[in-house]
Amino acid sequence: MGTNGSTMLEPLRQGLPPLDPAAVSSAASCALPARYEAVREARKFTRRTMDQWDLGYRFDDVCLVVSELVTNALRHALPAGAQRSPEQTPPVRLHLMRWTERLVCAVRDPSHDSPVARDSDDFSAESGRGLFLVDSFSDSWGWQPLAGALSGKVVWALFRLQPGQATTGGSADS
Question: How far apart are CA 55 and CA 167, in angstroms?
Fold first, then answer.
């Protein structure tokens, strides 16, 4: 038991920060459709998963970063105007992985282009701020091209967790 986390991570392993995949205590992932509603779906999935893991106290930061990573993946990884047939595999996938004192969210997409933080003096600019926010709200982040059978890249962000700081009394059924 407990191997599902590390086998799910296998294709991502080379793209993640240097944490031992065998030590993952929990892992969850969801495929996201190539539509902008996917950002909302990613947030709901993140909320549900973090509630199950008693990590609600980190939800705001993690959710902001997940939103940015998924938005970037959708914006930059999907060819403009490309219509996807429903039977095609969803091109973007969100992974959430928890270690004792770390949480990693990783977004996989089919693009080989590196994520670029654009320097922008125009703070009203809609795009270009995403990676600045990711950098501000996570403890570290990075990206890696995928190797082997998978094409594309994975962009990840890491959050430190305080042991024993799980929210108490957060759920009605306690």
Answer: 7
